[in-house]
Structures are given as structure tokens and as C-alpha cells.
Task: inverse folding
């Protein structure tokens, strides 16, 4: 590169750019529109929103999960009471889903314990293994062999047959 620069071709900007003060006798209409918009639209909407937020902060509602009242079991329904049958069936489905989630949670806890303990899992995770065995046995006793299309009636019949077999075995 040459040592001497052509200062005329590449002019250096001035060190201080002067601020232009526009003073005209005609006011800027944008300022009027912004002020009018602020007073007509923005201020009332902001006021109403802040008022609603203050009211909502006073009455906080904490929603954890939906609670259903317990309905009578299928064995407690009167003959021909189809609404009771339907409610008992819905209750049985909810109970089955809850029991499935319980088994899944216990299984996840056991897996986390096995991952955490490594080679010592058989000694340190014995409680979790025992709990999983109990939970899966209870689930299998209640819902096992019902299949995908199992319902409250077949589950009740399975329970009745199991009780009859236990009575025969006790005699």
C-alpha cells in the first residue's frame, strides 16, 4: 500500500457532527396523533387491565387436579339403574388409570435407584423392589386377565370367583 493517501478521494468524517435543531413555526402532527392515541386508547385500556390484574391477585385460585366424588360400586347399584351402572363404570376406569400410574411411578423409582446405585442395586434398592412386587401383584390380582376390553362387571366377576376359590381352599 502506498504511504501517502489521497485525502480528497477518501475524506475523513468530521470529528463532531453538529446536531440540527429544527425550529419551524409549523408543529409536527405526529406528536399530536401520538398524544391523542395515548389518551384515547392506551391509557383507558392500561387502566382497565391493571384493575383486573389487581382483582385477580386478590383472589388466587390454585388448581391442582380435578376431584371426582366417589360413586357407588357396581355391586351397590340397584337393578335397572343404568345411570348408576355408567357412573360405576367411569369410576372403575378412573381407578384403573390411577393404579396404572401408581405402578408406573414405582417402576420409575426402581429404575432411578438402579441407575443411581449401579452394582450395589440389589442391596440398596431392596425396598423399591419389594414395593414394586407388591404393587404389581395387587394390580395383577385386580386387573390381570381382563384384556383391553375389560370393564367393571368382568372385574367384579373375577373378584367374586377369586373369593370363592379362596373359600374352597380354606375349607
Result:
Amino acid at each position: 500500500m502506498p504511504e501517502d493517501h489521497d485525502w480528497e478521494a477518501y475524506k475523513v468524517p468530521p470529528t463532531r457532527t453538529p446536531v440540527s435543531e429544527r425550529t419551524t413555526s409549523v408543529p409536527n402532527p405526529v406528536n399530536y396523533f401520538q398524544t391523542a392515541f395515548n389518551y384515547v386508547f392506551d391509557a383507558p385500556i392500561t387502566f382497565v387491565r391493571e384493575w383486573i390484574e389487581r382483582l385477580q391477585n386478590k383472589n388466587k385460585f390454585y388448581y391442582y387436579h380435578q376431584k371426582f366424588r366417589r360413586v357407588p360400586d357396581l355391586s351397590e347399584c340397584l337393578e335397572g339403574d343404568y345411570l348408576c351402572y355408567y357412573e360405576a363404570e367411569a369410576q372403575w376406569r378412573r381407578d384403573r388409570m390411577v393404579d396404572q400410574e401408581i405402578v408406573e411411578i414405582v417402576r420409575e423409582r426402581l429404575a432411578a435407584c438402579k441407575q443411581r446405585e449401579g452394582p450395589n442395586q440389589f442391596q440398596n434398592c431392596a425396598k423399591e423392589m419389594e414395593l414394586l412386587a407388591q404393587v404389581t401383584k395387587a394390580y395383577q390380582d385386580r386387573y390381570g386377565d381382563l384384556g383391553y376390553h375389560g370393564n367393571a362387571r368382568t372385574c367384579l366377576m373375577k373378584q367374586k370367583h377369586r373369593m370363592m376359590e379362596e373359600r374352597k381352599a380354606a375349607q
User: Anything to note?
Assistant: The chain is about 65% helix and 0% strand.
